[in-house]
Specification:
Order of helices and strands: HHEEHEHHHHEHHHHHHEHE
Strand content: 5-15%
Largest sheet: 6 strands, mixed
Structural class: alpha/beta
Number of strands: 6
Radius of gyration: 19 Å
Shape: globular
């Protein structure tokens, strides 16, 4: 889980592409594939509100903040009625990255290709390859990535054995909904900015990051904590998510603490400024970003309140 807390959408684009490439062996997790019409209809009939929602108001207009999950279950692909109404009422869907935008995809590919790659010691490389094989992904599909991106990809792929897949992530679903409804769909960040956060600053830090993540993958801790995170999100458990530091095991080393700060606290002011600029331009914005950006004194609801917005939490539990 400590790796999940640092991961933005940058890794998700790659994972969506990989989700249909898992080997068909019996011990491999099932590939996500495209939901059938029957599965989509069942998800629509059973749609419930999940996640975390706030209404923010200023200058006589409402916008919304919504905390998403980057890997999700097929059953959650249709938002519940409260979230769906907020999307309908907005004219702009704002995401960390619009993963369906070809320009974003191209910039992501270029930025990833230009990243500096730290060399791993052979024993560490072998452990990475074993985890790639366990994830049923051809190593060639990850070989050109930095070690950090390889590990982040493996971390999110670990959820597939419990039915959690980036192909069903709420950010991807909301991007599709926004484009389908011909709303204005925008990215609040750039791929280069996200990848900079996800890239360790030197070879020593990269090795420490990979070493710790491999220990979590090999022990099964990542899979367990992905499932716990998903359960808290699905239950719209605001208190549970607000206290994630009590259970995430994500702040044990200086590298973990610094990377988490860069991934959340350092990015949130920029996200808040982008949302504010859209709203000030007359837009009614449905801003959907990873749930952990919503909590704490530097969470988006608090930052928007500091910018003069009236902020109202909408309790989704039980809806």
């Amino acid at each position: 889980m400590k790796r999940l807390l640092r991961i933005g959408l940058a890794a998700c684009l790659l994972i969506v592409a990989l989700s249909a490439r898992a080997a068909p062996a019996a011990d491999c997790p099932p590939a996500a594939g495209d939901p059938s019409a029957e599965q989509i209809e069942q998800a629509r009939r059973n749609a419930r509100d999940h996640g975390f929602l706030w209404r923010i108001s200023k200058d006589g207009r409402n916008s919304w903040l919504y905390g998403t999950i980057h890997v999700a279950r097929l059953d959650w692909i249709v938002p519940g009625p409260t979230v769906m109404q907020a999307v309908r009422d907005a004219d702009t869907v704002a995401l960390e990255l619009d993963l369906l935008d070809p320009a974003v995809q191209a910039e992501m590919a270029d930025s990833m290709a230009g990243q500096r790659r730290a060399a791993l010691p052979p024993p560490l490389s072998k452990r990475v390859r074993r985890q790639v094989a366990a994830a049923c992904v051809p190593y060639a599909t990850l070989a050109k990535l930095t070690p950090e991106m390889q590990i982040m990809t493996l971390t999110l792929l670990a959820g597939r054995r419990d039915g959690l897949d980036a192909a069903f992530g709420t950010d991807v679903i909301l991007a599709g909904m926004g484009h389908g409804a011909r709303k204005n769909v925008v990215s609040l960040e750039t791929p280069a900015a996200q990848l900079k956060v996800l890239h360790m600053r030197d070879a020593r830090e990269a090795r420490a990051f990979v070493e710790g993540a491999l220990a979590d993958l090999e022990s099964g801790r990542v899979q367990r904590m992905l499932t716990r995170f998903a359960g808290i999100w699905a239950a719209a458990d605001y208190d549970g998510m607000a206290h994630y530091q009590d259970w995430c095991e994500c702040l044990k080393t200086p590298v973990e603490r610094d990377t988490l700060k860069r991934a959340l606290d350092d990015r949130n002011p920029g996200l808040a400024a982008s949302i504010d600029a859209l709203h000030a331009d007359g837009k009614q914005v449905f801003a959907a970003v990873g749930s952990l950006h919503m909590f704490g004194p530097l969470g988006l609801p608090e930052l928007m309140a500091q910018r003069g917005y009236q902020v109202e939490r909408i309790d989704l539990a039980g809806r």
